[in-house]
Amino acid sequence: MLEIKNLCAKIEGREILRGIDLSIQAGEVHAIMGPNGSGKSTLSQVLAGRDIYELSGSVLFNGKDLLALSPEDRAAAGVFLAFQYPIEIPGVGNLYFLRTAYNAIRKRKGLEEMDAIDFLALAKERMKLVEMDPSFMSRSVNEGFSGGEKKRNEVFQMAILEPTFAIMDETDSGLDIDALKIVANGVNALRGKGRAILLITHYQRLLDYIVPDHVHVLANGKIVRSGDKALALELEKTGYAEFEKRGERPLRSV
Amino acid sequence: MIHETPSGVSSPLFTEEIANLEHKLDSRYPAWLNTLRHTAFASLLERGFPTVKDEDWRYTRVASILATPFKPAKSSMDHLFSCDAIDKLAGDFGGIRLVFVNGHFMPTLSSSGQFKEGIQIESLATILSQGQHEATLSRLFNHFSNAFTALNLALTEDGAFIFIPPNTIIEEPIAVVFLSDASITPFVSNPRSVIIAGAGSRATVIEVYTGILDNLYFTNAVTDILLEEGAKIDHYKVQNETHKAFHIALLNLHQERGSQFSSHLTALGATIGRHEVRVSLNAEGAETNLNGLYLAESGQYLDNPVLVLHHAPRCTSRQLYKGVIDGDGRGGFYGRIVVAQDAMKTDAVQANKVLLLSDLAQADTRPRLEIFADDVKCAHGATVGQLDDASLFYLRSRGIPLDNARSLLTYAFVSEMLSLVRVKPLQAYLTELTLSRFAGRALERSDAI
Question: Is the model's pTM score more than 0.90?
Answer without folding.
Answer: no
